[in-house]
Amino acid sequence: MKFAPLFEPIKIGSMEIRNRLIVPPQGSNLSNPDGTVSQLMHDFYVERAKGGFGLVITEIVAVAKNGNAILQQPGLWSDDHIEGFAKLADAVHKHGAKLCTQIHHAGRQTYPMFIGNEQPISCSPIPCPSCQVPPRELTTCEVYEMIDNFIQAAVRAQKAGVDAIELHGAHGYLVAQFMSSYSNRRVDEFGGSLENRMRFPRMIIQGIRRELGSAYPIIFRISGDEKVPGGRGVVETSTICREMVEAGANAVHISAGAYGSMQWIIQPSDAELGIITPYADEVKRAVDVPVITVGRINDPYTAETLLKSGRADIISIGRQSIADPHFPNKVLAGQTEEIAPCIGCNQGCIGQVFAGFGISCVVNPFGGRGVNMWPPAKAEKTKKVVVAGGGPAGMLAAWVLAKRGHNVTLMEKEKELGGQFLIASYPTGKGDLTKPIRYYRVMCEKYGVNIRTNTEATEANIAAENPDVVILATGAVPVKPDIKGIDNPKFVLANDVLMGSPVGQKVLIAGGGLIGAETADYLGEHAKNVTLVEMKDTIAEEVQAVPRITLMGRLESYGTVLMPGTEISEFLADGALVKKNGESVKLDGFDTVVLALGTEAYNPLEAKVKAAEVYVIGDAKEAANILKATEAAAALAVKI
Q1: Which of 50, 126, 267, 388 has the highest count of CB atoms within 10 angstroms of its CB?
Q2: Who contacts 493 (Cβ-Cβ below 8 Å, separation ≥6)?
């Protein structure tokens, strides 16, 4: 059997899981406000059990009211929380998977608004460099009380029928804060030496073992390297893991990073596959229990390689399990081309969660908060549907409608499907964007969508289909504001540059939003001298926070001249006149001027087409981010 190593059972302590593929903890913002398990949160995890994962680890579960890292985080600080976890455990078990709960306290890595407007707490009164909220230092007595909070949360999980506990000691949260000299300046028995800094997690594990017995499985999660100045490295991590195993942990789960190095916790699309595994490999040399690895592992080939090479024993499929909850089942069935791919964009997952919304996915909106719409019911009445536009929104709508039994024709004016997504795949590190285009096409073909490329949707050829429903997904076009000199025929559009239009050595890019910044990245990689002008005070403002870190790092490395807060007042033949800080500045001597001044909806057909039902989706309705487009397409496709 292909990928056989992925489906070998393995034991974590006394618990046997059916395969080596697990769902790691990922905040979802789907719990009820009081920390109880909501129906949507319940369904989110059950879907992954249905999808064939061996072990489902819930997201961070707070052990105290002041422990939240996100707005709607589940808890186990009260017996009131037990019932919801019991129902979840029963449902997960019915589908052959095991359930683990990750117990957690945010410590200093939170905001007062998430914890009832209280001041965050920590081992020492040092603010998190990301959150920048001064925490209150726990007294020694309070530290012992917090240890008991963790232990009692584990007791409640066992009462609920949860199969295992994972202690969250990674990513700079409270347990990690105690373990690392990066954040711990205590001089009592919980600070100073490594032995003392390990005391907090050791006592938690020993207490859980004492309360729950020798057979109850305990997993310890830790960052292999915190990737922050003065933080813990992999040698110290390996020592800690060895000590935690001696204290009673049955497995270790190796991640990386803290809030000060967020790009290591949630890697962007330009990160290499399996980027954290070298730390798991190092820890594996120090312990004799299963080692779990995670981090940009989104295809079965990579997962199998990591197992067969002995670098890890179990594979955490993180954001890929959001993109496709049925990843294991599809791999087992040989349906790898039908796996909805994670593209590492972080828009629907972490971007939505940190913004206070429920988790979603750009490629597969049904994988997150839309899970209650899946699988969509068969249509009550078969309709003839024409979809105009073969970008992500149009393709997604087309295949879901066809799956529901409708007769669907998809028209795309270009020779390839993909729309703006295809163009967006050309900048540095964005090659994964071709994956959803291929995935959508495969699904369209599977369910019988009549795909017509090189066919621009017009009033006439839509009418020739005599459709019951027309969906307009015609996308967006570049904006040309009314600025003197902008109509110079020598100027080029950013999209055309990305698709191969030649430019000179010295380039001025007008517009530093997503498209302009990524074009600058692309040209910087090709050793061009780029100046990037943006009217707003922030370059690439709309780019999700984590990918923006690496994007801005590359622009800096290329020597890109960044000019935020700069308004273009007039274009010149070889540059532009701009205003910055109230002063006029002449930027000239450029070989090429590139326009990246935004996009606007392109919708020429709505007033012309004739059909019983006409809908406009995606950028054709409003030029916005891709998540809005695909979520709207999904919602429409299950309604018609």
Answers
A1: 388
A2: 478, 501, 594, 595, 596
For residues 52 and 329, the answer to whether their CB atoms sit within 8 Å is yes
Check 45, 111, 144, 173 and give the catalytic one: 173
Nearest-angstrom CA–CA distance, 297 and 107: 29
Q: Give the alpha-carbon dihedral of 341, 345, 346, 351, to 10 degrees.
A: -130
CATH 3.50.50.60 location in the chain: 492-597
Three-class SS state of 561: strand
Q: What average pLDDT score do residues 623-627 get?
A: 89
What secondary structure does DSSP assign to 296-320, as a single string? S--SHHHHHHHHHTTS-SEEE--HH
User: What's the rounded mean pLDDT across residues 397-426?
Assistant: 96
| pLDDT band at residue 610 using 50, 70 and 90 as cut-offs | confident
Q: Would the pTM count as exceeding 0.90?
A: yes
Alpha helices in 318-432 (DSSP H): 319-323, 327-332, 350-354, 392-403, 420-424
Nearest to 108 by CA among 64, 172, 30: 172
- Based on the residue annotation, tell me whether 182 is a catalytic residue of this protein: no
Residues carrying CATH 3.20.20.70, the chain: 4-373
**For the packed helices 234-247 and 199-212, what is the interaxial angle rounded to 10 degrees?**
30
Question: DSSP per residue over 317-330, as a string?
Answer: --HHHHH-TTHHHH
| Rounded Cα–Cα distance for residues 598 and 479 (Å) | 5
For residues 207 and 201, the answer to whether their CB atoms sit within 8 Å is: no
The helix (run of H) or strand (run of E) holding residue 510 is strand 506-510
CATH of 4-373, one of 3.40.50.300, 3.40.50.261, 3.90.950.10, 3.20.20.70: 3.20.20.70
Average pLDDT, the chain: 96
* pLDDT attached to residue 21: 98
Number of helices (H) and strands (E), helices first, in the chain?
A: 21, 27
| Encoded amino acid at 496, one letter | D
What number is the average pLDDT over the span 563-581? 96
CATH of 492-597, one of 3.40.640.10, 3.50.50.60, 2.40.50.180, 3.40.50.2000: 3.50.50.60
The one-letter code for the residue type at 169 is: G
CB-based contact 40:15 (threshold 8 Å): no
Q: At 625, is the pLDDT very low, low, confident or very high (cuts 50, 70, 90)? A: confident
Question: For 509-526, how does the pLDDT look when each residue is reduced to its tens digit (9 = 90+)?
Answer: 999 999 999 999 999 999
Q: What is the pLDDT at residue 555?
A: 97
Residue range 418-434, pLDDT digits in tens = 998 999 999 988 999 99
**Architecture per CATH, 384-478+602-637:** 3-Layer(aba) Sandwich (3.40)
Round to the nearest angstrom and report the end-to-end CA distance of the chain.
40
H-helix or E-strand spanning residue 614: strand 613-616
- Using only C-alpha atoms, the chain has a radius of gyration, in whole angstroms, of 26
Model pLDDT for residues 173-188, shown as the tens digit of each residue: 999 999 999 999 999 9
Q: Name the CA dihedral angle for 42, 44, 50, 51, rounded to a multiple of 10 degrees.
A: -160
Average pLDDT value for residue range 283-296: 97
Reported as a pLDDT band with limits 50, 70 and 90, residue 624 is confident
pLDDT in the model for residue 428: 85
Long-range contacts of 328-331, Cβ-Cβ distance < 8 Å, separation of 24 or more: 328/6, 328/7, 328/19, 328/21, 328/51, 328/52, 328/53, 328/54, 329/51, 329/52, 331/3, 331/6, 331/21, 331/300
**Measuring CA to CA, which residue among 341, 285, 337 is closest to residue 317?**
341
